Amino acid sequence: MQTENLGNLFKSKDLSNKIIFVLIGVAAYRLGASIPIPGVNPSALKSLFEANKGGILGFLDIFSGGALGKLSIFSLGVMPYINASIIMSLVQGSHIFPYIERLSKEGESGRRRITQITRFFTLFLAAIQATGLTLALNHMPVPGGMPIVYNPDLSFYLTAVLSMTTGTILIMWIGEQITERGIGNGISLIIFTGIVDRLPKAIMDMLKLVQLEEIGILSAIFILALVVVIMAFVVWLETAQRKIPVQYAQRMVGRKMYGGVSTFLPLKVDQSGVIAVIFAVSFMTLPYTITTFNPNSAIAQKIMGYLSHSSLLYQLVYMALIIFFCYFYNSVAINPKDLAENMKKWGGFIPGIRPGETTAKYIEDVLNKITLGGALAVSMIAILPDYMKAKFSVPFYFGGTSLLIVVGVALDTIAQLEAHLLMRNYEGLYKNKKIQGRWFNVGK
């Protein structure tokens, strides 16, 4: 990216206002993530998360941007909203609730009504998760036997549940405002900033270990090289396309001749991008939420054991969820029949394929094949670094899930900035290049 091209971002008043709005929204989120709930012992919390940073608690702390480790008002993060969005999306495609299914077919008014229902559902899930997390605080074993809560009375429970529930609703509102008035998807950018916020500390911890000779320089170089290679592969995967050739026949419209050109239909290998990964992560937190109500029970202990990142069952379920949500996203975002009908309407056809139903079936077959390849690649990236971390004892959190989200959100945001610049007749961020991204909304 060249400096003069980067300056184009602030030549457009509308675009610069959007960027400033995003920065203000992110700053508000980071401020809320640092405000702790009163009555909590910070030393005990730090000891608890240090002891569990390789487990599900550390994993959730990464996605909350460190808010969970401080037990701040934003401890629950965006997970209740994403869970509500997933459930609402699944319900729309089923016949369980005819009212929701009918709303999904009523256009803009129906979409607004579904958004309102999703918000109320988010409030309900946030209240449940906040209650479970608050009840679990007094039962979690802390190294040294320090109490996490100074005075666990009814007043503390009410304050903690109300604070975390309100914090989730505020995050949801900030994300929606960023999506509507800023650049990129607000919810994804909030998750992105939470992950990136931990990166400087991870690098500093790594340098300290190298200085103390607890890890060799060659090992540190190997880890860095591995991160770079995986990031390069993620960039390639996010921009990879399967181009289906399309030929448009010449036709007369009035006194002008149209058509007679060859083009292609681009289908992304990873069409869902980070959506499938975020949905899978959110779905995997549901069992943990259930166990927080009685963490010392035998069933809860078994569930927590299965939820360990190093367990084979966890990795297999996580991979299966990513693959499922990749296909689910494609089923919602792409309709092969509509593509085939529009192509036929404008005189287009795929060479060797009959227009209409045959073209739709061909597009669907191609989409299913490349989606399988993309979903398998994404799921392998998501679990392989975690496996290598356990195998080679990588000293800081290095997760493929985090890399997928950071790279994916960054590419999509850059693509939307590029689109805004080109739409306003400014030179793009990159000369003679285009960044292919996707416009998406979590839960919509």
Explained architecture:
The protein is mainly alpha-helical and 444 residues long. The protein has one domain (3-423): Preprotein translocase SecY subunit (Orthogonal Bundle). The protein is 66% helix and 5% strand. The strands form 2 sheets. It has a 3-stranded antiparallel β-sheet. The chain has a two-stranded antiparallel sheet with strand order 2-3. α13 (274-284) crosses α16. It is globular. The protein starts with a helix and ends in a 21-residue tail after the last helix. The model is unreliable at 434-444 (pLDDT under 50).
Secondary structure elements and pairings:
Blueprint (H helix, E strand, L loop, with lengths): L2 H4 L6 H21 L8 H10 L4 H8 L3 H4 L8 H14 L5 H6 L3 H30 L17 H28 L4 H12 L1 H13 L5 H23 L1 E8 L2 E3 L2 E3 L3 E7 L5 H11 L1 H6 L6 H9 L5 H22 L2 H10 L2 E2 L7 H36 L7 H24 L21
Antiparallel strand pairs: 1-4, 1-5, 2-3
Q: What's the gist of this structure?
A:
By secondary structure, the chain is mainly α. It has helices at 3-6, 13-33, 42-51, 56-63, 67-70, 79-92, 98-103, 107-136, 154-181, 186-197, 199-211, 217-239, 274-284, 286-291, 298-306, 312-333, 336-345, 357-392, 400-423, and strands at 241-248, 251-253, 256-258, 262-268, 348-349.
